Amino acid sequence: MLRKTLVFLAALLNSASILMLHPYPLNAVDSDTYHQLAIFGDIFEHIRTQYVKPQDDNKLIQSAINGMLSSLDPHSSYMDEKAANEMQLSTKGEFGGIGIEVSMENHRIKIISPLDNSPAAQAGIRAGDLIIKINDEDLRGQNLDSVVSKMRGKVGTQLTLTLQRVNNLIKIKMTRAIIKTEVVRYRIEKNIGYIRILQFSEKTYDHLKKAIANLKLKIPQKSLKGYILDLRMNPGGLLDQAVNVASAFIEKGRIVSTKGRNPQDIIHFDTHDKDLTEGKPIIVLINGGSASASEIVAGALQDHQRATILGTQSFGKGSVQTIIPLEKGALRLTTALYYTPSGRSIQGKGITPDIIVEQALPDKLKNSSINYGESKLLGHIKGQEEDQKGSGSAAYIPQNPKTDIQLQEALKLLRGEMTTHIKKSIHH
């Protein structure tokens, strides 16, 4: 008997916009498995009838489900109805919350970065802070989706986070606001177009096209030296948007492939647009905060020799999550791995820059842990190209562009100025 389930390919924490009708055969279950399930039922019944304090049956079952999924990898999880709905809203780029990107690291919730001008940023929350409590509720044992759901809520309501910053515990109170995720920013750096993509949501490609068009209008083509595509601190997002963005810079060819459990479960994604930059030189900036969809773009541009990648090792999240709707909520399950056009696995390795430029850290961050990487996550899937160095690096961008060493190095390269780093040819 076959059951048909609508599934969406997903990158990082967001559902992708690729819809498939996918049959899942119900494989035969052996007698030993039924025996183990019977043991589970016995334990569940003993807990609900004999434990010293009454427990909520639904919470017990959800905890068991989450325990099973967390034993697989850090990105597989169960979402209740509220969490599933909020995930769909987040891909549209607007929700009620405090504005932070988070990840699960060694069973703890770690802040990747606060969004600019968000309540979190204004309250002084920093990348690398660990969330210990929300409104005095201990988060131990809770999964990432549950924590994210608790931080979101009605605009105007308050919440308090207890954070661990290095060896100190601090409490920060904030008021939830409408978080409109700004996905693309751009500006002119003299004769260079600077474009920063903050995440890959439904409108990313549309905003990128507008950014490139406006930069072309403001900078004469003859004097335009090229573009800087800044993917630092970009946690990823929708797979189709990553393919669209890469297509905006590559005339033709493969962007990414996904390979599943079976050898025949291979899906290829190719370009479908013209090069909107008309062959101008491109430098892509990445760091330890560049994950998933941003690694797809960087890897494609690197393999096609369309751009020079500058910065530090990316996060290394090369796994695909399938969102499977359930009667109540949804299951997010890792079902495939990403591969660049040349066949390189992103998982646990990340993208290695053509030119490595370390970003200097301010004194207040030198003693804190702001190094990120899939290979550092407990229980992650080991990638076929993962080595002892692993993936990831420091994830930090100075607010002042003048002190942004990676940005300044990219500007020098595009302008043909002398640099202290090894200069590689910028591909056209």
- The percentage helix is 10-25%
What sort of overall outline do the alpha carbons produce when their principal axes are compared?
globular
Unreliable parts: 1-23, 422-428
Rg computed from alpha carbons, rounded to a whole number of angstroms: 22 Å
Largest sheet: 7 strands, antiparallel
Count of helices?
A: 9
Strand content: 25-35%
Number of strands: 23
Distance between the termini: 53 Å
* Average pLDDT figure: 86
Content-based structural category:
alpha+beta
Protein model, in words:
It is a single chain. The chain is α+β, with helices and mostly antiparallel strands. The protein is built from nine helices and 23 strands. The strands form five sheets. Strands 1, 2, 3, 15, 16, 19 and 20 form a seven-stranded antiparallel sheet that branches. Helix 7 packs parallel to helix 8. Mean pLDDT is 86; it is low at 1-23 and 422-428.
Structural key phrases:
30% strand, 428 residues, 23 strands, disordered N terminus
Short description:
With 428 residues, this protein is α+β, with helices and mostly antiparallel strands. Helix content is 24%, strand content 30%.
